[in-house]
Amino acid sequence: MLALRLARGAHPLVLLRRLMVAAASAGVGFLLLCTLMYALSHPEDSAAVVRLLWCGLPLATTVYLAVTVARTDPGTRPRPGLFAVGLGPFRLCALAAASTALTCTLGSMVALLFFLHLRGDLSGLPFDGAAAGMLAAEQPLPLPATLTLLALVPLLATVATAVVLRPRAAAPDAEESSGTPGGLPWGITLVALGLAVETYTSDGRADDRPAGVLAGWALTAVGLWLVGPGVTHLCGRLLQSVRPGATRLLAGRILMAESRRLGPPLGVMCAVASGAVTATAAYGSAPQPWSPLTTLGATLVVVCTATTLLTTAIEVRGARSEATTALRIVGAPATILRRAAALRAGVLVTVFVPLTLTVGALAAAPLTR
């Protein structure tokens, strides 16, 4: 009940983020239900399992978006006076998890209603049964399997939120004194392993062994997610190299301080963009017809990834607001702050765009031979 009241009284931007999570949850639920009905109507087709595996991509990006929105929610942050009324760190973590569960469950309910409406099971509304053939309206809808698939997003998002936001022992000095984030070597290893798996399992086209291609791309995506903080940290060091001035020094220090927060969504965006480069290179000469469900899945992945990156950027900007105010108080010109922001954006684009194109080209090489 408290989570519902906080959701009703939240800022419009926070409500918009939660609405995005609910919409993404609805889209993933609809994809899972469509995959279920395809498997029931085509029991002899082994591609149904592959379709279910491909649904894991929008599922993962939706869970990642839900965790990011929960982490940036001001209603679940520790504030003075909350501990006195019984809202300590553990209660706030449980509140964030409950809000995530409520938002994702709402999206799953919308997905079920929309699915039943397009099948023609619900009448009295426009477009009744408009997709009855595609959704196998002649097949009965199994209730246990339906509820299990619809519970995937709320369950995974709630567990992930509770794990990420769980109270930890504060050790700010150790975190500030560490060097480059430690995930860089592991990320490079996973990227190389993912490219190797994709090269080994593919035979000239991604349609021949889609499960192997999916496994290779998943490993590459996880590797880029781990690489993101380290690359962002190195971008900050790059800005401060060769006798830096005040602007480059400020921009580099900010990138190094924000690498742990901004790096992971940058790595995920790099993975999604490299996947798009791979698909373009593999099917550029022979365009493949995209079904509505494929378009929906790709749209979910891109929108969720972009929203996660934008939400994280807003979060880190708010986190350094006090430092920005202090710089203005001591007389720092506004032009220096704007130039520092432009330098940060420029060096990130300069480094991550070639990385994306390189990974995409290497992933597309075995698919175009």
Automatic annotation (TrEMBL):
<feature type="transmembrane region" description="Helical">
    <location>
        <begin position="345"/>
        <end position="367"/>
    </location>
</feature>
<keyword id="KW-0812">Transmembrane</keyword>
<keyword id="KW-1133">Transmembrane helix</keyword>
<keyword id="KW-0472">Membrane</keyword>
<feature type="transmembrane region" description="Helical">
    <location>
        <begin position="143"/>
        <end position="165"/>
    </location>
</feature>
<feature type="transmembrane region" description="Helical">
    <location>
        <begin position="262"/>
        <end position="284"/>
    </location>
</feature>
<feature type="transmembrane region" description="Helical">
    <location>
        <begin position="51"/>
        <end position="71"/>
    </location>
</feature>
<feature type="transmembrane region" description="Helical">
    <location>
        <begin position="92"/>
        <end position="116"/>
    </location>
</feature>
<feature type="transmembrane region" description="Helical">
    <location>
        <begin position="21"/>
        <end position="39"/>
    </location>
</feature>
<feature type="transmembrane region" description="Helical">
    <location>
        <begin position="290"/>
        <end position="310"/>
    </location>
</feature>
<protein>
    <recommendedName>
        <fullName>Integral membrane protein</fullName>
    </recommendedName>
</protein>
